[in-house]
Structure formats: C-alpha cells, structure tokens
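Translate sequence into structure tokens.
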Amino acid sequence: MSIFEAAKPMVVRNASDHAAELIRDAITDGRLEPGARLKEEQLARDLGISRTPVRQALQRLSTEGLVEIVPNRGAFVRSYEPNDLDELYDLRALLEGHGASRAASRITPEQLTALRASCDRFEALGAGSPVEALVLENGHFHDTILEAAGSELLAGMIQQVFKLPLVYRSYVWYSPDQKRTSERDHRRLVHSFEQRDSQAAETIMRDHVLGARDVLLAHLRSWHAEQ
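Result follows.
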C-alpha cells in the first residue's frame, strides 16, 4: 500500500515541486521515518510520475536537510544525532524568539483572532487525537506568528530549523502535563501579543521551544542508550 495513496493528483506542469511537497509531508508527519531508504523507482510508481522529477525532488529535500543522498547507495530520510538536534533547537529558539518579538509590534487584530482560535483547537485535541493533528495545529500557530513578524528572510531561516525536528514526531512522547504546558505557553504568547510586549513574547517563545527540545532529547538519548 502506497504511503501517498490519499494524496491529491499530481500536478503535471510542476511535477518535481509537487513530488517534493508530498515526500516532505510524508517525512515530517512520520510516514517515512529517519533512516528510511527512498527508492526513486518506488516513489515514482507511487506518485504516478517519471523518475526524473522524483530525483529533482530528492535533491531539493537534500538541500533542506530532510534527505541524505549517499553516493552509490541512494537517498535516505536523514537521521540526526541528539547533539545535532540540540543545536537545531537552540537555533530555532533564537530565531523564533526574534520572530515573536517582531510579531508583538506588528500583529494585526485578524492574526490575534487566528491565534486565539488556534489555541482553542489545540486544547480541544485530547489524548486520543492523531499526532498529525497536534503537529498541524502547532505548526499553524507558529506560522501565524511568523507571518505577523513580517520578514521573508527570517521565515526562510526558521522553516529550515522548524521542519527537521518534526521528523522525530516529538508529540508522540508528550504526556498530558507536557501538552498542558504547551497550551499554557500558547496562551501566554497570545497575551504578550495583545499587550504589545516584545520582550515577554521573545522570552516565552524561547522557553517554549527549549521545553519541546528537552522532551525530544530525553527520549532520544534514552533510546540511544538502549541500543
């Protein structure tokens, strides 16, 4: 059974772009796990296209850090050591903290409304909710803040370090208490935006990102120790 079976039909005029999008989504939502082999022929068959746009898509995802292309071996979903992810989260905390600071002075009433609605939806996702739903809603919340920050340069840099940890589906390991902490952080961020408090927004966002890092790294290091 293809992991792309539920995907929308391929857009022929931009096949490599669409292939990159579908493969990227499959990686970041866990259908393709770290270390998984990415066979061009199989991907092309699953996506209903030729191997050339698949090869182009894999090259693009390699530049994003999601795929590793090994000479004479092929392409794989890239795996990261705990220390690598630690550094990525440090960078993400700095960048998203700066983005939250910018957003506090630029956010529109419509964007504030969107963030409040996102908080409501995130809190409504219970223990039995799919991991993908948690990731999607959390991503929407952070994307809205990034949009409010109003910097294309910053957006590109943040997307680079934001997507990579999603490969490890850190929400799988969230306890109810940890999810409630995330909910509280989101509400506190919205409050800082309402108050136009750039310093508070930056501090809360940095702590929020580093808290997610701690959950992920604790489990990855435990897993590595057992190997």
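Note: The chain has a mean pLDDT of 87.
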